[in-house]
Description:
The structure holds two protein chains of two kinds.
Chain A: H1 2-5, H2 7-23, H3 28-52, H4 56-84, H5 92-98, H6 101-124, H7 130-153, H8 162-178, H9 186-207, H10 212-215, H11 218-227, H12 230-253, H13 266-302, E1 314-316, E2 323-327, E3 340-346, E4 349-357, E5 363-367, E6 378-381, E7 384-387, E8 393-395, E9 413-414, E10 418-422, H14 423-435, H15 438-443
Parallel strand pairs in A: 1-3
Antiparallel strand pairs in A: 2-10, 3-4, 4-5, 6-7, 7-8, 9-10
Helix pairs in contact in A: 2-3, 2-6, 2-7, 2-8, 3-6, 3-7, 4-6, 4-8, 4-12, 6-7, 6-8, 8-13, 9-12, 12-13
Chain B: E1 4-15, E2 18-29, E3 33-38, H1 44-51, E4 59-64, E5 67-68, H2 74-84, E6 85-89, H3 100-108, H4 116-125, H5 141-153, E7 159-163, H6 171-188, E8 191-196, H7 199-202, E9 207-212, E10 215-221
Parallel strand pairs in B: 3-8, 3-9, 6-7, 7-8
Antiparallel strand pairs in B: 1-2, 1-4, 4-5, 9-10
Amino acid sequence: xxxVKLIPQLISxxxxxLVLLRGFPGLRSVVTTTSISGFAIxxxxxxxxxxxxxxxxxxxxxxxxxxxxxLLLWGISVAAIYRSTGRRVTISxxxxxxxxxxxxxTGAVLAGIxxxxxxxxxxxxxxxxxPKLLFLVLIAGILTVIALAVEKRLPASLTVSPSGMLTxxxxxxxxxxxxxxxxxxxxxxxxxxxxxxxxxxxxFMESVLIPDHLFVRSVVWGYIGLLFGKEVGFWGGMIIWxxxxxxxxxxxxxxxxxxxxxxxxxxxxxxxxxxxxxNKRMLLITPLFSLAIFAAAAYQSSFPSVEYWDPKPEPVTxxxxxxxxxxxxxxxxxxDGKLHKYLFKQEGKEARFFVLLxxxxxxxxxxxxxxxxxxxxxxxxxxxxxxxxxKTLIPLDTVGKPGGCNPVPIQFTEKADxxxxxxxxLLNAWSSTVRATAxxxxxxx
Amino acid sequence: MATTIIETGGLTRSYGDICALKPLDLQVPEGEWxxxxxxSGSGKSTLMNLVGGLDRPSAxxxxxxxxxxxxxxxxxxxxxxREFVGIIFQQHHLVPYLTAVENVMLAxxxxxxxxxxxxxxxxxxxxxGHRLKNRPGELSGGxxxxxxxxxxxxxSPKLLLGDEPTGNLDHKSTxxxxxxxxxxxxxxxxxxxxxxxxxxxxAWGDRTIYLDDGVLVREERTNS
Lengths: 445, 224
């Protein structure tokens, strides 16, 4: 069961070892030993972190490590494209280190640690225990041996440049983390882009003193709305996501062919050129393959296989005094820690809301919408609720607090046997936070 | 002492029940011009095909230029032919709708880097500088064979194989071709294995071996 749950992670681990073995030719034993050691360190590190710290800390640490590796890839890709233009960048000492046992060992152990952490997070975040983690290390070890055997059978001409190797390793790390909601980088990245554009447009309109609603007609608002749309975040995220691999592929493609003018014999000259061209094409395989992995990670992030708890909203009515009363016990147990959705309709108006018991034991009543996004509602998974529109994860601890993408909290009265909500307050809250900004929200966020 | 470029041990080639080449032990030193003589069906072309990596033996060992041809994959054999061997056929096998220079460039494409200037230069070396843009149908038999020679040497082979290269030519053209090959060999220092049934042509070589019914029956040094 553990192995099934970890299929994307284990596939990634196999790929990482394969790429590392090919990327450090002649250092097979170093790569094998250090990578599996790193994996074991990562798994045991995660195990102890989950034992001694709140879950948010190990998740945050692993996500940061993934973010740093992606930033490193960005840096290397920019340096690679800069070098390919013929300008000199003094990284010769670094380049020399790549092909040493120390370089190979460091790279492999770091990749192993991060993959081990991601795999352990995948199970420790829910039901991880020591025997399962031990089993995980064992499977990783077996996959390492298989990767070693497969790598020996790959054609010798299939070479990997250091930058191509880094691209593939980072792509595989991001792929293996994208199936975990709390480690996924693509959705937060898209959201950051969306919010960045949102803030920029807002700031721009304020700084050039464009009066909002007086002069800007609804057609114009329609176009402005596009800039606030989910698509802007998605495509902006995609550009940031894919650019490093594209830059590295371009840098390899721009590599100059060796000078052959001094070679008198034509056949030798052509053979040298042909070998250089063939080698360049082979080097391109890894970054192009990495692009496919990045695409798979983005797909996994956009269409996660996680099954959200998303109950159909139960219709509720108000008493003659305008109070909606929801009993704590009954067909639905309000205190089971699950999200319970309701739909209130009155005089042609409606509002969708949910009741949830926080981990601290406090009941909270919130609109099934936030003040920013289109009201696509929330689902619940892995200790969080998730905004369906922008895929923001909101830890259960913070549900009930206002601001950002949090569900809009509603005032209610907790009684011994249930919660009471004023119907008019609810409708007004829905109306003011959802419908008031619907014009912009129609275009997006 | 010259190194051995071709070494066979018990080399055999059978086609079903027919044994075209019976176990043959042969050594050819680097740079030698070896003529292979025999009647039709004696196994001359079979030997040439095996040595050139165009066919695989049924048994025995075959080392050419330090490569064990039996151990090579199909891709390995293709690479071997591309980089090591030049072949001149009796029937030319030129592409009829390509010009002389394009036919020569075709061999360059094996390296995926064609060079027209080099192809022109090769044709000039074989005395066809004025026939670059002519198609095979517009060339005489001797000229076509010279295009074949230019095509065969364009990749600087270590081993040049000729399968009756002058079989279709008159005496004058034959002499012209053989002189050209002699000059090129002196310049390029390749080894020549030439199959022929013409004693006069065989005499251009350093050594002649005689095959009969797939068996090496005689061997002699020539005074060329």
